[in-house]
Give the backbone structure.
Amino acid sequence: MKIFKQPKIEVKNRFGQIVTLEEANFIESVREHARGIEMDNNLIAEDSSLMVRSFLEDNGLTMGDFNNFLSRDITQGRVRDLVYNSGLEPVFTTIVESYVRGQYETIDEIGDLVMSRVPMEQMTQAYYKAVSTDGEEYEMVIVAEAGDIPVTKLVNDTKHTIVAQKRGRGLALTDEAVKSQRIDQLQTFFRKLGIRLQKSELAQAIDVLLNGYFADIDAPETIGVKSTTSYDLTDLWFAHRVMIDDYGFVPNEYIMNRKTATDYLSLKDGQGNFFFLQEILGASLPEGIQNAKIRINEGVPNDKILLVDKRNALQEYVFKDLSSETERSASKQINTVYTTKINQFVPFEKNARLILDLKKARD
């Protein structure tokens, strides 16, 4: 089977350089590159799609470029032609990843919720905290002439450790009918995986925003409303100002479940008119104070609104990015392709989130 449309592909990469990919040695070049960057031996043995993706990235190419290079032999080939002793297993896992990742990124609900991604070198990582001699870790203080400037140190918090979680799903290629299918006919299954991965990651991220990762040190503050029998926009204004005035964070997203969002949408002015009539008629979401975006998520309990400054609230620690690998059972004659990701979500700034409890009276 031909991998590429032509024996030699010459293309200009994103840096303006000419990159040459040769059919004859492409797979070995990918493996050699993986060994050169000291990729985990298990990933190499499992023909991980990470090998191809890292090779492409380091050569200034994208997965989209790679898909455009592929021949009809590959894109319309049978599963058995790629996964059974063909030597093309890394190409197959890369195609599988592109199916999963394509759907995962198309419905991306979590991208703008994460302020940054932090690479992990192992499954566990130390958590750091700020300490100072004067107890004011971040306060800029007035210093007398020739006086000492207070110093804040970042130290390892020995009581708290970040542990990455692995999530994934495999497809066992056992049935002869599956083996004889064209690769593109498996798209539906792998696209569903992309949807579910996105949903499960979003649920985890919302839970961390709502409850903290360590809970004892990073759970957000909860404040109430002036009346537990009803609330109005001034309660949102008050919560908004607490974040700005007390902590210096500006919430740009409110997260609530459908019931609470429906109640919010039903707010009326003193004459009984809906504040958000146009949004109701247009079946759209209203905005919060200062144009804060509203996100509906059923992970937030009834009668609670989570205010979030997305620029400072959440980090994603990544040990292994989304990728696909294969495993073969020689005795059972079964090939299984797995798609996995290993990561963890951790709050960055505790006070970049605030919970408004609509059933709690404000002091």
